Amino acid sequence: MANSESGYAKKAANLKDLIIRLKTLGDDYNPPKPKLSVEALEILSKNADDATRALSLVLPVYSKAVDEQELIFKSLNALITRSYNYLKAAIDNPAELQTAKTLADRLRGIGKNSISADGATGPSKSRVSYDNRVENLKQYIDVLTTSKVYEPTQEDISIASFQTLLTSMENNITAVAIAKTPVDDARRNRFNIFHTEQIGLVDTVLGVKSYIKASLNIDHPQRKHILALTFTRMNL
């Protein structure tokens, strides 16, 4: 995401540079399409800045919710391990213990590995997703409750504490989803302004460059600088 964000910022900055250089051309810059005019490019530059600003206004709320999510879920693995170890010491039914182990492993992402692009192995993302962990925690709490022998003296691994943690997780997942919607909308709007075919910033500037190649001699002092400004396409 960092590279993507810097890519947008670079294109916006390059467009401003382009406009300044085109203005120095004066009457030498007379493109055949109105959308390639300096005035149209200035409007496009403002729209790009406005879209970037709109995204920056909604990102902090989403980032805060995501940071809180990481903190809420961070301690879960250690708590589940301690809880399961207590259950092993307290329960006699092997089948019931196996059910608890299966859920505990799912909560910790143990058992099913995925291979990343660099060849490293780790817990499958589907096994450790926040939604899945919430559902598995619900079932794990049910196993603890029905065991009738799960009564640790440590408050942080008590059933009541797990239920409180579960509520916090559910509330946080909702908060992240709510905060993500305006971020997605703002990113989509920015993408459209920069990358819509024909009328987006990138395609428009490519049209400017084509005109510059046709209208300025190869030894013109501005030709090289204008053509060197990069405006690469991106995927949403």
If you had to describe this structure to a student in words, what would you say it looks like?
The chain is an all-alpha fold and 236 residues long. It has 2 domains: 2-72 and 184-228; 75-178, no CATH class. Helices cover 72% and strands 3% of the residues. The chain contains 9 helices and 2 strands, in the order H-H-H-H-E-E-H-H-H-H-H. It has helices spanning 2-25, 38-74, 76-90, 94-108, 125-128, 130-147, 159-195, 201-215, 223-228; strands at 113-115, 121-123. Strands 1-2 form a two-stranded antiparallel ribbon. The longest helix has 37 residues, at 38-74. It is rod-shaped and about 90 Å long. It starts with a helix and ends in an 8-residue tail after the last helix. The relative contact order is 0.15. The model is unreliable at 113-127 (pLDDT under 50).
User: Hey, roughly how much beta strand do the residues contain?
Assistant: under 5%
Largest sheet: 2 strands, antiparallel
Integer-rounded radius of gyration: 28 Å
Mean pLDDT: 90
Low-pLDDT residue spans? 113-127
Adjacency order of strands in the biggest sheet: 1-2
**How many strands in all?**
2
Instruction: Give the SSE order as H and E letters.
Output: HHHHEEHHHHH
Structural class: mainly alpha
N-C termini distance: 11 Å
Helix content: over 70%
What is the total domain count?
A: 2
Q: Indicate the overall shape.
A: rod-shaped
Output the number of helix runs: 9
